[in-house]
Structure formats: C-alpha cells, structure tokens
Amino acid sequence: MQYFTSMFFFLVITGCGPKPDHQNQEHATMRINVDSLAALFLAGWNTKDSVAIMKTIADDAVVMNDSLIHTGAKAISERWVSGGVRVLSNIKINSSIREASESIAYDGGTYSLDLTPPGGPTLKEKGNYSLVWSKQKSGEWKLTLIHIEDITRMPDIQ
Questions:
Q1: How far apart are the C-alpha atoms of 158 and 80, rounded to whole Å?
Q2: What average pLDDT is seen over the chain?
C-alpha cells in the first residue's frame, strides 16, 4: 500500500511541474525569416525592378544614405530608388546581426556593390547597412528604416 501511495504522490508532484510554453512556441513560429525579407529587397535591386523594391518599403519609411535622408515612400521612390536602379548592381550583403519578433525584424552588417555612373567606369563600393522591417496592419512586412553608410570614400582610421 505504501508503494502505491508513494507512486501516487510522485505522479501528483511531477504532474504539477511547469507546463510547456505553447504560447511562446506559437509566437516563435510566427516570426518572419529575416533572410527572406532581405532577399526580396536585394532581388529588386539586382534585377533593376523599382516596383519590386517599392513593394518592400512602407509608406512611412525612412532612408538614411550617407548625408541624405528620404522620408516616405514617394520621396524614397523619386529620390533614391529611381536613380539607384540605373547605376547599382551586384549588391551583396554580409549580415552581422539579425533578429525578428512578432512585429519587428532587423538585419545589419556590411555590403558591397557595383556603381556604374552613366558614361563612367564601374566602381566598387562597400559599406555598412541596417535594415528594419515592421509588421504592417495588413500583416505584410515592410521596411521602415534603411540606413546605408558608404565607407569606400572614408579614410581608414586606426
């Protein structure tokens, strides 16, 4: 009898332990893949498809490119994307940090690209980037912050 009482007590105690956190498991599966978001953005640039690029950018996004700041999809399209797709190619990124939650995702690291001004030679550019996506009310993920810093023309500081 004592054996059954002990077994019952053991089962009760182990059954009262912490339950698996199904809610957090569900949230983890709802997180977006940052690599896929970055791939969509880069594919637009590398295929010179301004429509595809703009589909990845939120209406209220901000682009900080060196000393220029563009706010809103219209300004970004007219002042950054339209000229950029004509001269930029072979864009590659090397991510140093990336993470996503249910409502925000980010990626940061270094980039390299080819810059071919009209009538000029192809120049190699490299720099640092930060990309931030926010989940929109529609459920879509859109870039809300793009920060690009060209380090090609900067002096090396040791």
A1: 32
A2: 84
